[in-house]
């Protein structure tokens, strides 16, 4: 057995592999990929996860065919065929893809730790068919996929057996590396298994494989972070938000012991998505705005998608001056403005106080929120908050205003506005009251200074009462 050594952050073999990969990926992403992001596995493919979500929303009736076609850039039926082809065999026969896979695997085994990756360098891994029988079967049932080219149960069984045999072969490489090579080769062999499972096997198999990677002794913080982030993507792809958060918590603890800024910035992007999932929009907003200039993890989402999250969350919390500086006039955001026109229009109309167009944009935004797998669970909440934000900004400019004038500014009827304002005032979201007889809305600006004073007096009284009770106990 070769002598043990600390696993280095820089794997020259991996660098060779990623040089070709990044050449294909670069035009697709405006965010510059970092060195660690270039080495990240393209699987699971998060763009594929978004496509699956959109098809699910369409098939459950939450997204109309017109909205789905506009957002997807094609008819839902066409996207379904593409998704099933990518998840399956890419239009090839099962026998052919198994033969090709066995040939590549044999080349890897024969090459062992030398030039085993030469053939893989010429392959665009991101667009390779996944050959994933469990995912294929799940989508076939949930999306009601029926086509002459659909894979039969026997085909899926053949793929399952093929993956079982392939994983066993890859496991022999781990054994050989342990006996004949060093820690770096063992790490690479373990990562090959994890990435293979993330691409073609079940969630449980992939997570277990990554757990074995992070359990390796003498694993550097950087390599451990890479494994944690890929593990978090596996959990995210399958919609296991709990495991995703737990994995990111482990990554945070690991990087606290030491880690480069590149991986810290990537972790912030993952954490921002995690905050969105639990509706902690304020924390997400801070991380997203900080990450706009340093975004480098295109494996998680496209840059325009990242900017969408930043704009949507920041509108709710950033003051106008900061909103103007970071969002409205942000150079990075202006680069992708044509790709996300609805989101940009929402920010601009709010800042310009064009309330009629602002409400129209909120309506146009709804299908885009539903079509996004991270924002869809919070679509109702976000739409409600955007309404509150617009009403509050308008009322802050007046001590009193007629319902008719306000309704005219928002381009709605007075009855609709009355119902909306009443609901938000009753819920304590707007500090105003409606004079129904006079048809006037009067604002009640809270006196923050007196409110703080009253709060201090109440807390002081409470403290004195507790001290008196403690004094009586001590006297006894």
Structural description of this entry:
The chain has 476 residues and is mostly helical. Helices cover 68% and strands 2% of the residues. The protein contains 24 helices and 3 strands. The protein has helices at residues 12-25, 35-38, 46-59, 65-72, 76-87, 94-111, 118-121, 133-142, 153-180, 183-200, 203-214, 221-237, 241-256, 261-277, 281-291, 303-314, 320-328, 331-335, 341-351, 355-370, 379-395, 403-410, 414-426, 448-475; strands at residues 400-402, 432-435, 440-443. It has a 3-stranded antiparallel sheet. The N and C termini lie far apart (74 Å). The model is unreliable at 1-29 and 113-122 (pLDDT under 50).
- Class computed from helices, strands and strand pairing: mainly alpha
Query: What percent of residues are in strands?
Result: under 5%
| Strand order across the largest sheet | 1-3-2
- Helix-residue proportion: 55-70%
């Amino acid at each position: 057995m070769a002598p043990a050594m600390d696993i280095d952050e820089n794997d020259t073999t991996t660098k060779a592999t990623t040089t070709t990969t990044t050449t294909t990926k670069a035009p697709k992403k405006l965010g510059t990929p970092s060195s660690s992001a270039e080495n990240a596995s393209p699987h699971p493919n998060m763009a594929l996860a978004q496509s699956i979500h959109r098809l699910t929303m369409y098939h459950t009736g939450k997204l109309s065919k017109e909205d789905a076609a506009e957002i997807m850039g094609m008819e839902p039926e066409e996207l379904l065929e593409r998704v099933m082809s990518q998840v399956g065999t890419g239009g090839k026969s099962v026998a052919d893809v198994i033969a090709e896979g066995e040939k590549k695997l044999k080349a890897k085994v024969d090459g062992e730790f030398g030039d085993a990756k030469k053939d893989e360098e010429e392959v665009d891994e991101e667009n390779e068919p996944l050959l994933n029988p469990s995912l294929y079967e799940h989508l076939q049932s949930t999306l009601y996929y029926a086509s002459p080219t659909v894979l039969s149960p026997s085909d899926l069984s053949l793929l399952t057996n093929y993956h079982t045999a392939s994983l066993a072969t890859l496991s022999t490489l781990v054994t050989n590396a342990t006996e004949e090579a060093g820690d770096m080769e063992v790490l690479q062999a373990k990562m090959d298994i994890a990435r293979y499972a993330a691409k073609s096997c079940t969630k449980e198999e992939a997570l277990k494989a990554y757990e074995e990677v992070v359990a390796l002794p003498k694993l550097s913080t950087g390599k451990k972070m890479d494994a944690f982030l890929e593990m978090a993507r596996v959990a995210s792809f399958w919609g296991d938000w709990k495991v995703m958060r737990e994995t990111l918590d482990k990554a945070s603890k690991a990087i606290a012991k030491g880690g480069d800024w590149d991986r810290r910035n990537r972790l912030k992007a993952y954490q921002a998505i995690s905050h969105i999932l639990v509706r902690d929009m304020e924390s997400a907003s801070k991380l997203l705005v900080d990450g706009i200039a340093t975004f480098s993890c295109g494996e998680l989402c496209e840059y325009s998608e990242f900017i969408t999250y930043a704009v949507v969350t920041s509108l709710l919390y950033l003051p106008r001056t900061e909103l103007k500086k970071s969002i409205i006039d942000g150079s990075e955001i202006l680069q992708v403005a044509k790709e996300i026109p609805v989101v940009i229009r929402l920010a601009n109309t709010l800042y310009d106080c064009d309330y009629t167009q602002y409400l129209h944009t909120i309506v146009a935004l709804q299908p885009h929120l539903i079509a996004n797998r991270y924002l869809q669970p919070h679509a109702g909440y976000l739409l409600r908050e955007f309404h509150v934000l617009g009403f509050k900004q308008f009322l802050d400019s007046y001590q009193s205003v007629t319902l008719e004038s306000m309704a005219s500014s928002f381009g709605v009827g007075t009855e609709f506005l009355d119902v909306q304002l009443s609901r938000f005032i009753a819920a304590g979201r707007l500090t105003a009251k409606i004079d129904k007889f006079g048809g006037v809305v009067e604002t009640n600006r809270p006196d923050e200074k007196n409110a703080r004073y009253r709060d201090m007096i109440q807390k002081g009284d409470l403290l004195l009462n507790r001290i008196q009770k403690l004094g009586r106990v001590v006297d006894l």
